[in-house]
Design a protein that fits this description.
The structure holds two protein chains of two kinds. Helix content of chain A is about 75%, strand content about 0%. Chain A is mainly alpha-helical. Among the domains of chain B are: about 80 residues, Up-down Bundle (Four Helix Bundle (Hemerythrin (Met), subunit A)); about 35 residues. In chain B, about 60% of the residues lie in helices and about 0% in strands. Chain B is built from nine helices and no strands. By secondary structure, chain B is mainly alpha-helical. The radius of gyration of chain B is 31 Å and the shape is elongated. Classes of the chains: A mainly alpha, B mainly alpha. At the A-B interface, helix 1, helix 2 and helix 3 of A face helix 1, helix 2, helix 3, helix 4 and helix 5 of B.
């Protein structure tokens, strides 16, 4: 398959993730949509790595996976802290910062 | 063969992504993301990135998703109404934004004039995508990002523990387990002034055992 097809799939997944961040209200699902966007970037990185025939892009993808794991850890910690403080698990209900 | 596999995996990945944002229950969203990640690992395999595909399945679809499932079960994945509160306008704008973003990304990547985009890619180097090559690169050319990533993981672990620990002070049982030095200097319940003011609580009185009730005859 031509590399362009992979890039098109990657763009489509990224757009779906961005739309999900805008429409959903639960912070859990917003984190999932962030994962979608990071994975779309990973797919593009690996496609470009294949395009050059060079393994460097795969290292980038692995580092992105590490960053995604950190983001999940901190984000889920925040959600658990919100649940403990009886804050509603809803991004529209978080108005303490007057956002 | 590669085309068929690509379309199966690509449709699976896109369907999983749509399932994440369209399913009402967060639990089902997590399961859709697992499906998406496995399909994506298949795409990675088609791109000859074997190690990244294996890491994707083991780390992402395995460990991270289990963490998600635990938190959804803890928080209680209640169904949420899908429509935005302010009516359908926000959703229309979001879908429009997604479509525009997709077109823009396609223009940016496919229309970039890179000649190799239409090809199957350059002939890969020796050991392309194998664990040996990845490990060698991580420990030689990309040593600094590797170390920084390990520090980032450490910081994230400490941050998660700090965020999720219990707040609101000690409970009564833990308060009583704290001793002050005074209790070892002077025995309690000796009528000192500190006890009279109430600074130092006297030893708890031993409750007299209630007299055994007389049996009814």
């Amino acid at each position: 398959m031509a590399i362009g097809w992979y890039l098109a799939v990657s763009a489509l997944i990224f757009a779906i993730g961005a739309g999900g961040v805008l429409t959903r209200r639960s912070p859990l699902v917003i984190l999932l949509c962030l994962e979608l966007m990071l994975n779309a970037a990973n797919l593009a990185l690996i496609a470009f790595s294949r395009m050059h025939g060079n393994s460097d892009g795969q290292i980038f993808a692995i580092i992105v996976m590490v960053v995604a794991a950190c983001e999940v850890t901190v984000g889920l910690g925040l959600i658990v802290a919100m649940y403990r403080r009886r804050v509603p698990i809803n991004v529209d209900g978080l108005r303490e910062l007057q956002g | 063969m590669a085309e068929v596999l690509f379309f199966i995996a690509g449709i699976g990945a896109v369907a999983g992504a749509i399932g994440v944002i369209a399913l009402r229950n967060p639990f089902y969203s997590v399961l859709a993301l697992v499906c998406h990640l496995v399909s994506l690992a298949m795409l990675f395999l088609l791109l000859r990135a074997e190690f990244v595909a294996a890491a994707q399945v083991v780390v992402y679809a395995g460990a991270v998703m289990v963490l998600y499932v635990f938190v959804v079960a803890y928080v209680g994945g209640q169904d949420e109404p899908l429509g935005p509160r302010a009516g359908g306008g926000l959703r229309v704008v979001a879908v429009l934004f997604g479509a525009v973003l997709f077109v823009e990304l396609c223009i940016a990547t496919l229309g970039s004039g890179l000649k190799a985009i239409g090809s199957d890619g350059a002939p890969p180097e020796a050991g392309f995508g194998s664990p040996e090559r990845i490990g060698e690169l991580l420990l030689t050319k990309f040593l600094l990002p590797f170390e920084v990533a390990s520090f980032l993981l450490l910081i994230a672990a400490v941050g998660a523990v700090t965020l999720a620990r219990r707040r609101g002070g000690l409970t009564a049982a833990e308060d009583q387990a704290r001793y002050s030095a005074m209790e070892f200097l002077r025995p309690a319940d000796t009528g000192t002034m500190a006890e009279g003011v109430g600074d130092r609580s006297p030893a708890p009185l031993v409750e007299p055992r209630p007299a055994p009730r007389e049996e009814l005859r």
